[in-house]
Write a structure and sequence with these properties.
- The N and C termini lie far apart (about 40 Å).
- Strand 7 (about 70-75) and strand 8 form a beta hairpin.
- Strands 2-10-9-4-5-6 form a six-stranded mixed sheet, with no helix packed on it.
- The chain has strands at about 5, 10-15, 20-25, 35-40, 45-50, 60, 70-75, 80-85, 90-95, 105-110.
- About 0% of the residues lie in helices and about 50% in strands.
- The chain has about 110 residues and is mainly beta.
- It contains no helices and ten strands.
- The protein is globular and about 40 Å long.
Amino acid sequence: QMHLAESGGGLVQSGGSLRLSCAASGFTLNMYAVKWFRQAPGKEREGVACIKATDTTTTYADSVKDRFTISRDNAKNTVYLQMNSLKPEDTGVYYCRRPNDSWGQGTQVTVSS
């Protein structure tokens, strides 16, 4: 069964860091582009960061550029989102997804001021 599972969320103070993991099972994750999304309370889901399959090119939303880093560990079949200098507005549920996948449960990130 093909599955992506997000983990690594938590409560952190403003200025802190977290690393989110997106672990794949049942398929080889590095064959696919992977995108991280987030949804804040009362807001629409937005794309945060993306990593391509072929050349591992990365792209970021302007709001997280220079603070977040998306990367792959092919040996662990996992994509990560390193989040530094966190702000209260980064609070939300974070999801990882391949194109056309259904949404998983996500992982909650809460940044206190």
